[in-house]
């Protein structure tokens, strides 16, 4: 058995001779890397230079601005004896260069004192360009007059103004808007000395910090990304059939068998769908009821092959005309609605609003009463008002009978049930292929379920022929929406009907429910 350790080999510097050998080895490696770099193609060199553009562009702009100022602008700044410390024109230029080199020397030596962050390197060329524009403004304007000379040499004021105007024309496209904002003018050479010294500080600072950043980021990252060659098993070892193990493995020298933490008890076993008490082998066509149909009532009519009537029958309208309402019913109705809108005792955390159109706006989290809770309060108020008015005007006798019967038999004075689940299965053997020998299951959980001892009578009169009415109307067509798009399949369902108070002989009369609708986009769910 052979054990190979894949740790890296470290050079131990035990003596000066070993240090010299290590330096020679590093030099040979660097020379080999330099030789290999000459074999790069032009495209590979561009790929290498791409991450360095954030350093090259600011430094190039700094150098361009420096040479433009030192060789293009500063030599034209000539002051007379009163404004130039009695220096000649050649001495003035030499002092400009001396101050510039002093500023460069100081800033290049400041790398041990402070380091400019990489994010601030692009600011240095902007300051340098601003300095160039400031020097251009000094050449473009004279504090006294364009015809008054500021020099004590051979160059006359007219020649200086002509050179300044030439420079003004050259920088007009780039500095037009900038020079419009300048109102202060330099009148003495010491101010130019300060600006030139400041220029040298910026240039040296940009130079030394740029190369320091390249060394700290680009070069070190490239070296850290180099991968050492992995350990290779010699062919002779493979031929001998020697087993090779990794000592860093958790299974060395033998595999570790961890004891299982899952207890052999039914309470700790994950339950499957087949173990559900309502599991059936035949899948049903299910409408859950948690989300409405995509196309509403039209889609339900298309599935059931039913007709949709937009108006109430004449018999219903005749009965509605006999209903007596209180005189202040409109005020009562507004109070019922405002009661639900004003109700805010819990201050629940509402879901965070997301606008699909203005998706970049982050809406704050608000607290209050959920929309469904407010709607349920309004439904309760409406139902309570209907029952009380029915008792007052001797209407809805069957509901009042339920109230009295519940008081003495069930002990529940309410004629309706709140938030009770409902489920029904219909076996369809003919018609659509997908319903063949498969039940259609409808589930819902309405807020109010009103039941009565009498079944609802059909709205169509016995004298009216249903076939004639069906010929005049058409089943709604929801194309291009597929009618069964909101139906799913499931093996867990109840074959028997699930309704509240199923022990008593009651019939469904009215179902009241509410759902949350988007205020800004009401056509969505």
From TrEMBL:
Subcellular location field: Endomembrane system; Lysosome membrane
Gene Ontology, cellular component aspect: endomembrane system; lysosomal membrane
* Bilayer-spanning residue ranges: 189-209
One GO BP: regulation of intracellular pH
Q: Which UniProt keywords apply?
A: Lysosome, Membrane, Transmembrane, Transmembrane helix, Transport
Q: What is its main location?
A: membrane
The record describes its membrane topology as: Multi-pass membrane protein
The UniProt entry's sequence similarity note says:
Belongs to the battenin family.
Q: What protein name is recorded for this chain? A: Battenin
